[in-house]
Amino acid sequence: MADTYNKQAVIDQAARWAAMIDAGDMTEGERAECETWCAADPGHREVLERMLRFHDRVDQGGAVEKTALRKLLSQRANARRVGGATLLALCLAVAGWLLLRGQPADAPAIAYHTGRGEQRIVELDDGSRLTIDTDGSVDVTLTADRRRVHLHKGQVFAEVSKNPSRPFIVTTKNGSATALGTAFAVRQTGSASVVTVTQSRVRVCPGDAPQTDTRCLALSTGQRARMTSAAVTRLPDIDPELAMLWTKGWLEADDLEVSAVLLELGRYSAIPIRFEAGRLAGRRVTGSYPLTDIDRALEGLARTADLDVRKADSEIVITPR
């Protein structure tokens, strides 16, 4: 959430500078401080300049926008008569409006990362929400005509705010998944990406293929597909609630090979988990394991699958009893 807080802090500070500049009573020291703040990051100056271009927006906007902006301007003029605090509040409101409306066509990507064992929820400006799984990395770009999330590694669950004029697209090195008003997860594996739909519909396309490409597949709730740069292949359907238990910190195993469970737990463990898959072949388990407490998960798995767990400083070794 740190990036969200930082962005809000920039907006708040820019609004304060805008209010002071607008009032025309800044001291030399305050002007120098404002310039230092703008020079510290190109984004600072951009946000401040967008606020100061507020009057120009009135002439450039549509009829509805002009009415809304003129109403705000009128309120702001009144606020100047009653004090700086009210003026600042109105500037903050204007700033929020501008940021929501005025996503530029070349908006920079914002990067989000998670460490091993960490999960992170990111609330986007458009009302959508991302849950980034352990050891993950995504770039988010919100422009006036589309919303794009590029998944570099790991897994991301997107709960998408419906907006038909701004498609929401998750891309990986293997292709794209496009949705409107839906929820779905995309996971990057070594050679492919897996798309899982938990609500509504998603269109999955390989590589850079356009939406009209015949290789694209439309997935509905509970459906999954494996995506490579050349093709999209349907996978067996799943229970959407069980598939998304990882967002609540749990791994659900339904008659899975023990080695598959250990591989998944290993993605969340700060210490590498070592085992020989061949020695565990044929051992299968069913149960729920906490992803936020790997020690407890391994204890439960050991009891169920009759395993020995040996911990050292640099690794955890799993062997059959």
TrEMBL record:
Entry superkingdom: Bacteria
InterPro entries xref list: cNMP-bd_dom, FecR, FecR_N, Ferrdict_sens_TM
PROSITE patterns (UniProt xref)? CNMP_BINDING_3
**MF (Gene Ontology):** sigma factor antagonist activity
Domain Cyclic nucleotide-binding positions: 112-161
Keywords assigned by UniProt?
A: Membrane, Transmembrane, Transmembrane helix
Tell me which Pfam families the record gives: DUF4880 (PF16220), FecR (PF04773)
Q: Where are the transmembrane segments?
A: 82-100
Q: What is this protein called?
A: FecR family protein
Q: What organism does the UniProt record list as the source?
A: Stakelama tenebrarum
